[in-house]
Amino acid sequence: MSDKLLIMFHGVGSNGVDLLPIAQYWQRQIDGLDIAYPNAPFPFMHSHEVFEWFSLTGITPQNRYERIVDAREYFDQTILRTLQEHKFQGDLSQLIFCGFSQGTIMCLDAIVSGRWSVAGCIGFSGRLASPVESDVRTTKISLMHGEADAVIAVEEGREAYHTLNEAGFDVQLETYTGLGHSVNELELKKGLEFLQAL
């Protein structure tokens, strides 16, 4: 059995395999790190190859949280199934989340709602769209965001950092000049440092 399990959560119009190279990069340098990269439960644009955690059609700042809440059951089922498949049940102190974009939104929601008090969470290019309801602050969080992100503005990352910091979470934020809605090598190295310190 591996020491830690890292679950990767992709963004809209993508799939788990897209994040596999990131997970493998970290896995090669961290002994005992198992990785998982499930697909979101809903097809994107009727495709059988790319998926989403919740629909963006007609989404607004006012209805976004409602959609996240509606997606929680499916997100949690994905996690539980992944834990079963990796025989990794019961020890959340050895479980780590990593999300990109909508995957980050769902990861942060899982933490601040109090449903999943995991060891750590790496969030690329996301936002915190949920209120902090959990009384538990044990999850360490690393947020990373490109300053040229035209999909989810870097201000969303900064706002997430301030909200989580004020709520008492151990959270860090790194922003990257010229980086759009993607992941660069500097972020990979920062993520590695974060994982090694858990």
TrEMBL record:
One of its GO terms (molecular function) is hydrolase activity. Keywords: Hydrolase. Transmembrane segments: none annotated. Residues 3-197 form the Phospholipase/carboxylesterase/thioesterase domain. It comes from the Bacteria. Belongs to the AB hydrolase superfamily. AB hydrolase 2 family. PANTHER family: LYSOPHOSPHOLIPASE-LIKE PROTEIN 1, LYSOPHOSPHOLIPASE-RELATED. This is Phospholipase/carboxylesterase/thioesterase domain-containing protein. It comes from Acinetobacter baylyi (strain ATCC 33305 / BD413 / ADP1). The lineage of its organism: Bacteria, Pseudomonadati, Pseudomonadota, Gammaproteobacteria, Moraxellales.
